[in-house]
Each structure stands twice: as structure tokens, then as C-alpha cells.
Amino acid sequence: MKVLNPRTAFLSDYEVLRHLTETKSRYIALGQSQGTTHAMKSSNLETIMKEVRDYLRTTPAATQSEEAISNFMLEISPFALEKAELLMMVNCRPSSIAELDCIVEEMDQRFSEEESAEMLRVVKRNLPPGPKEGEVIGSG
Amino acid sequence: MFILSKFTDLLHLPPPTFAHPTATALEDRINEKYANKVVHNIGLCISLYDLSKVSEGMIGQDGGAHVNVEFRMIVFRPFKGEVLTGRISSATAAGVKVRTDFFDEVFVPAAGLFEGSRFDGKEQVWIWHNDDQDFYMDKNEVIRFRVEGEVFVDQLPVPPHLKGEESSLHNKPPYAITASCQQAGLGLVSWWVEEEEDGEEGE
Fold first, then answer.
1. Chain A residues 59-118 with CB within 8 Å of chain B
2. Is residue A86 within 8 Å of residue A77, measured between CB atoms?
3. Which domain holds residue A86?
4. Is residue A136 part of a domain?
5. Which whole-number Å values give the CA distances from B123 to A105, B90, B91, in the listed order?
6. Can you give the residue ranges of the RNA polymerase Rpb4/RPC9 core domain (chain A) (predicted)?
7. Touching check for A39 and chain B: CB below 8 Å?
8. Closest chain B residue to A38 measured between Cα atoms?
9. Which of B24, B45, B83, B190 to mutate to test the interface with A (most CBs of A within 10 A)?
10. What pLDDT does residue A133 have?
11. What single DSSP character describes residue A93?
12. Domain presence at residue A133
């Protein structure tokens, strides 16, 4: 084994969740058309796929869509934010100034209070709130 | 939280897998070998993302094929400074242990907690004292933390002369994250939700 590039890209939680959901339904379809032995994958894969899906279903990624994220990226573009900050905004979907302040480094110096409030409004307008605690979206 | 890493590997496909399409057989082999495993200095591998390049197979001794493959993996490797959520799994005087469904090794040392936090040895819980109020960091509560550092431990085999002795190396997880909760907005998620309602009105 050789690592060619330790990090070719960042993935958002939504992309990972979508990839895992698609992979899982592909395996299920395979099992239905060719017999269950084809759907049985190695146990380490089944374990990690289930655990990551369980985790991501409790995060805002569960309620997001590609359209919502691209609209958000367009609307937030006037603000000079780092790529990592945008990624965290999509993944965490901050719902208060305090949360936004954790994500955006030195927010009080880089942005005025009004700008921060506007950023938060853009987040809330475009990204749906994450699932409530205990709520499960898209199980199965 | 997740990244794509590009690997290349020489994989062996035994003859029974010839019945499957090559891409499927390779996908299964790659996932079997990497899924839910930590690669040193890379992170925790989740699953195959896509295949980039596949060489012609070379026949091996058992009649199987050896194939050179280039592929991209989904890897769990939060960057320094990233804000994540997890659940408190335990607390000791040294700090708070946090886990997610798939990753257990997140540790918030006592020095990384809010100022004014103290450990209650009887209840085994950390309490943040703020504005004359006590905020309890109970087990299983959802906590938001910032990634501060990471430690990779190479899981080498134990040399024969050290076998029997409990080698400290093997008690250490291959990949662990240290974190902090020292800023408004971090700590238990339930501490900071009060503004959520007016957000929903605006939608």
C-alpha cells in the first residue's frame, strides 16, 4: 500500500451520508437480484457504515440537500470566509451567534455585529435545522 | 470531518471472485482491507469512494489475479480547529472522554475545559460554575468541542522478549484526538440552544 495523496479533497457530512446511503441501497438491490450472499459484505465495512450513518443522521447533514447547500454557498459568498469555515458552517449549521463565533475565527475583529447577524440569517434561510435530539431521519 | 485520500495498492483477487465484475470484486477487497481501520498518519478509513485506475491483472500462483489499483477512500480526519459534536462517554479528574458512534478516542483534558470547571469525584462528573449557576457535564450528553491535536501510535507487533509484559504501546489507540471546550458556544449543546426558536420563525 502506498499513499499517493493524504488529502485530495474535503468532504461535507452531507456528501459522506449520501455516498453511504447510495452504497447501502446498491448492496440491497444486488442482494435482491442475485441472492443475499452478494449483499453480505465484510463485517468491518458493515459496522463502520452503520455507525457513520447513525452518527450523521443526528447531524444537520440528515436534512440537507445538494440544492440547499449550493444556494447557501452562493448567498454566503460575499463574506470573506475561509474554505474550512464554510465547511464547518454547512456541517454544524450554527443556530446562534455563539456557535457561529466558534466556527469563524476572530469573528469580532473580522466582521461587524451586523455582518455576523446577516451571516447567521443566511445560514438559517438556506440550511434547514438539524434533526431534534432523538429524532431519526431517513432510517433503513 | 471527512476527507478523501488517494491510495495505490496491489490487490489479490482469488479465482472465485472472477464471477463478479472486476470493479465489484476490487471494491469488496478494498473495503475488506481498509474499512474501519486506522492508517498511520492518515486517519480512520470509512469506505471506498471511487476507483481511479486499474491495471491489467497478473496471474499469481493460485490462479488468482494481482491487480494494481489506484483509489480514493473516505477517511475520518478532522482538521485542527474543527468544531465537532459527540457524546460524553466518561469523566475522570484528568478530563472528559468523548465518543461518536464510530470513533471513541476523543479526550478533553481538564485544562481544555471552561475556566471555573471542577470535578465532582462522588458523582464522577465535571461541573462548570458560571454566573452563580452550575452546569453539569453529564454522561451521554451531546457535547460540542474543538479539535486541538491528534496522536497516531504505530501498532507494531510486540518483540518476543517483551511479550508477557503488558506493553504500554498496546493499550494506546492507534489514533486519538485531543480537544477543548473553552469558548462560548462550545460545551454541551443544550447550553446554547436558546436562540433556535426565532430562527424557525424566520423560515
1. 59, 84, 88, 91-92, 94-103, 105
2. no
3. 65-126
4. no
5. 35, 11, 10
6. 1-130
7. no
8. B20
9. B83
10. 66
11. -
12. no
**Angle CA(A109)–CA(A114)–CA(A119) in degrees, nearest 5?**
85
Which of A120, A22, A97 has its CA nearest to residue B74?
A: A22
* Packing angle, helices B22-34 and A43-56, rounded to 10: 80
Cβ distance B200 to A55 less than 8 Å, yes or no, reads no
Domains of chain B with bracketed CATH: 2-76 (3.30.1490.120), 83-194 (2.40.50.140)
Of the candidate ranges A95-99, A112-116, B45-49, B192-196, the one whose mean pLDDT is the lowest: B192-196
What would the pLDDT profile of B3-54 be if each residue is shown by its tens digit? 999 999 999 999 988 888 899 999 999 999 999 999 999 999 999 999 999 9
A134 in a structural domain: no
ipTM of the complex: 0.88
Strands B106-109 and B175-180, how do they pair?
parallel
Assess if residue A85 is contained within a domain.
yes
**Interface touch A88/B101, C-beta < 8 Å:** no
Looking at the structure, tell me whether residues A42 and A72 fall in a common domain.
no
Are A79 and A108 part of one and the same domain? yes
- On whether any CB of chain B is under 8 Å from the CB of A132, the answer is no
Contact A45 B186 (CB under 8 A): no
